[in-house]
Amino acid sequence: MSSLSRRGAKPGSEAQRRLAYFNERRDEIVSTICELVEIESPSDNKAAVDRLADAVAQKFSQLGGKVRIHQAKDFGNHLQVDFAGNSAAKPVLLLGHYDTVYPLGTLATMPCRAVGDKLTGPGVLDMKSGIALMLHALAALQDWHKEDWHGGWPRPITVLLVSDEEVGSDSSRPITEALAKKAAAVLVLEPSYGLQGAVKTARKGVGEYLVKVTGKASHAGLDFQKGVNAILELARQIEKISSFTDLKKGLTVNVGIVSGGSRTNVVPADAAAQVDVRIARIKDAAGIDKKMRSLRLFNRKCKIEITGGINRPPMERTAGVAALYAQAAAIARDLGWKLGEAAVGGGSDGNFTASMGIPTLDGLGAVGDGAHAPHEHILISELPRRAALIAGLIEAV
Ligand SMILES: [Zn+2]
After folding, report:
1. How far, in Å, is the centroid of ligand 1 from the Cα of 191?
2. What distance in Å separates the CA atoms of residue 224 and residue 359, rounded to the nearest whole number?
3. Sign of CA dihedral 188, 193, 197, 200
4. Which residues of the chain have pLDDT under 70?
5. pLDDT score of 49
6. Each residue's pLDDT tens digit, 142-171
7. What's the CA-to-centroid distance between 101 and ligand 1, angstroms?
8. Residue 148 has what pLDDT?
9. Residue 155 Cα, ligand 1 centroid: separation in angstroms?
10. Which residues lie below 8 Å from residue 207, measured CB to CB, with a gap of 6+?
11. 223 alpha carbon to ligand 1 midpoint, in Å?
12. Ligand 1 centre from 171 Cα, in Å?
């Protein structure tokens, strides 16, 4: 209440009524979030993710959505829900994921619990609160528009929740792209940026490479000269690979994991490096990919094999993205709040939709900190205005 009266919407305005509406329902939103957090859903456990998908599907169908389950064999199923609009407008796509990075059993040490303004739990920020915000924003729209409902939503709405975002979205990407293609705009309910809750208008693209070097094993004492040291070759390659970083272009190359060798007294025959590449501009993708693929041997007695590639294109701040942000900022202003924007290094499924040229706004979900870490939490007091912003955007775009 104090935060609202300090920076709230104009008294008597529609925006203020909406904020009050969500303030009254704040505890309900929190309990929806805990319900979702308490069904653990690690990306690599299909049975667990499917269980959450079913629970979420039921909630969306209670709102009148038409549920469609996209079966996935090696991952959890992906959930699409359509709400028919009473206008011919293109649908708005609400995008998110229900998998988390936390193994089953994490709840035991990290329960969904409110401590002061913080709500903790595995995946509470990334992004089960985002799913709860979708549900409550949609329920509110239904409530607000019931007088002029005429059998349809104020506009067509499609929800897509995928099961494999935390592990690269290979399985869901075609579905995301097919639905985005038909959409007027994509609203991504991933966590917001920073404790001011900025939305994300640019994200770097992400690539992953595996560099494998093969040499020849030998006894380090008896046959030193017969050996070909794969680790030494890889070390030289790592220097080369690291030099591809170009900070001015927002291009970074990080050798994050290395392995190789078996014993100190053996000249190592194998060594490998796993490399993370980030690009800010799609036009840099081909160049860095070519550089990675054309690494040349320092020691020709070795063999080198490079696999991988750029798997998420960058989300660039196009005119469409900027216009969507301007709409969001205007809604936030009415709610009495200055909504910031941020460019971040991490990727999401918004990268796919934005790079197709579909106006995309990311980071619309909860405000908090510690995604993927034991202190992951959201700020409960921020939930009402987030919900009001999302509901407003669904109507406006
Ligand atoms: Zn996420």
Report:
1. 7
2. 60
3. negative
4. 1-8, 151
5. 97
6. 999 888 777 678 889 999 999 999 999 999
7. 9
8. 78
9. 26
10. 276, 277, 278, 279, 285, 288, 289, 292, 308, 309, 310, 311, 312
11. 52
12. 16
pLDDT on residue 85 = 87
Amino acid symbol at 206 = V
The per-residue pLDDT for 8 is 66
- Going from the Cα of 97 to the center of ligand 1, the distance in angstroms, rounded, reads 7
pLDDT at 292: 98
Identify which of 81, 69, 74 has the alpha carbon closest to the alpha carbon of residue 47. 74
pLDDT at 218: 98
CA of 65 to the centre of ligand 1 (A): 23
Cα 252 to chain centroid distance, Å, stands at 20
Burial per residue of 334-357, b for 16 or more beta-carbon CB atoms within 10 angstroms, e otherwise: bbbbebbbbbbebbbbbbbbbbee
Phi, psi of 157 (to 5 degrees): -130, 135
Contact 349, 177 (CB under 8 A): no
Rounded to the nearest angstrom, the distance between the alpha carbon of 188 and the centre of ligand 1 is 9
**Cα(190) to centroid(ligand 1), Å:** 5
pTM of the predicted protein model: 0.90
Residue 26, classified by CB atoms within 10 Å of its CB into exposed (0-12), middle (13-18) or buried (19+), is middle
Ligand 1 centroid–CA 68 distance in Å is: 22
**Ramachandran quadrant class, 248 (left: phi over 0; alpha: psi -120 to 50; beta: rest):** alpha
**CA–centroid distance, residue 3 to ligand 1 (Å):** 27
The answer to whether 93 touches 108, Cβ cutoff 8 Å, is: no
Q: What is the pLDDT of residue 2?
A: 39
Q: Distance from the CA of 16 to the center of ligand 1, in angstroms?
A: 30
